[in-house]
Amino acid sequence: MAFLILKICTIFFYLSLALELTVWHVPSVASSRGIFASEEEIVGVYSAKFQRYFAMPRWKKIVFFIVPLIFIYVAYVYPLQLIFGFNFGMKPLFQPANMMVYAACLLVLLGRGISLASVWKIRQNNEQKGDSFELHTDGFFGRFRNPGLLGLYISFLGFWLALPQPFFAFCLLVYVRYMHEKVLMEEDFLRNKFGVAYDKYYSTTNRYL
To answer: What is the pLDDT of residue 28?
Structure first.
């Protein structure tokens, strides 16, 4: 029963993620595609520390911003084995008990709830381009500066409790490290875009927790 409920939660995870990526997609100023495009409208807002990423030779961009995506995509497809019943032939570090599987379900749903609520808030009146950028400081954004990403971390923690395999853990670590660098880039962009208003928000609101 526990794994059946987790299977349903996993299906909901992927359906809601598809909705987020298509209908409610929020473009990131620190996206890998944007780094390759090097649009002056975006690049000019960054400080020199991060402008160097856009000026990298293409091969360096591939190494630092494309290669890690391979492991990140693996992390995103990893939970599919809960739906289809296959596995990657790797032994888990431990066998999750039923209570841990139920906890995993709660984490998956909680994470998606936080992510979807934050995306909905941004998409109400923010196209993430030109003069449409807004600094959101209420709702979940009043508690965490990156609620959408935090929600994904929480969901993946739930999946790892149900699939405690070393390679999955490695892929998730790559994901967290990669996204943390992107978060630092976005923070730099927002600081230069909104100035004192963002500095005040930065000093009173935690990045993740």
So the answer is: 82
Residue 128: the pLDDT is 53
Distance separating alpha carbons of residues 89 and 168, to the nearest angstrom: 12
pTM (2 d.p.): 0.92
The DSSP-derived string for 34-90 is HHHHT-HHHHTTS-HHHHHHHTS-HHHHIIIIIHHHHHHHHHHHGGGHHHH----S-
CA distances from 48 to 53, 112, 145, 160, 208 (A): 9, 35, 23, 38, 25
Residues of the chain with pLDDT under 50: none
Torsion of CA 129, 135, 137, 140, to 10 degrees: 20
Q: How far apart are CA 154 and CA 74, in angstroms?
A: 17
Helix (H, G, I), strand (E, B) or coil at 144: strand
For 68-120, the pLDDT digits (tens) are 999 999 999 999 999 998 777 788 888 999 999 999 999 999 999 999 999 88
Residues 103/161, Cβ–Cβ less than 8 Å: yes
Contacts of 35-38 with C-beta under 8 Å, sequence gap 24+, read 35/61, 35/65, 36/61, 36/65
